[in-house]
Design a protein that fits this description.
The protein has about 180 residues and is α/β, with parallel strands linked by helices. It contains three helices and nine strands; from the N terminus they run E-H-H-E-E-E-E-E-E-H-E-E. The longest helix is centred in the N-terminal third of the chain and has 30 residues.
Amino acid sequence: MANEKTNYLTRQGLIDAQQKLNYLKTTKREQIAERIRIAREFGDISENAEYESAKAEQGFVEGTISELERVLQNYTIIGEDAEGNVGGQLKEVNLGALVTIVNTEKDENGNEERYSLEIVGTRETNPQNGRISNDCPLGAALLGHGLGDIVDVKTPSGIISWKIESIQPAGVKIA
């Protein structure tokens, strides 16, 4: 267990994981047990599709429970440490930070490409909602850099340079 990777979670991510674990261990386990009980009443379980389906779901749920228990045994809350917070800005990008970046090159129409991203742990990644992992190439490249820094990110199509425009604690809305 000493070599187990730390799971980085926001406060909400921790609450969500705890609630999901509780739901799976209580409600979902009971639902699956009832499905298995009913399927056994159909007779021969060797050719019973409902029984096989319920057992497969049971295996998936038990695997998810084990994974969530491992996460909750070794986690660190991110996004709440306001150390380095100066006038609503953080000094550098860290886990839990809300970062606005601008591509240093304008597109073919002369427009700037700009994103506001929250740097989160792998479990809470959701790029469509502006939440990127500290392990993805962009998230990893931004970590430790400060306001105004130019960060080069290696992509399959080449190097893209991003300028850090703002760094704020997560939960702070960027105007």
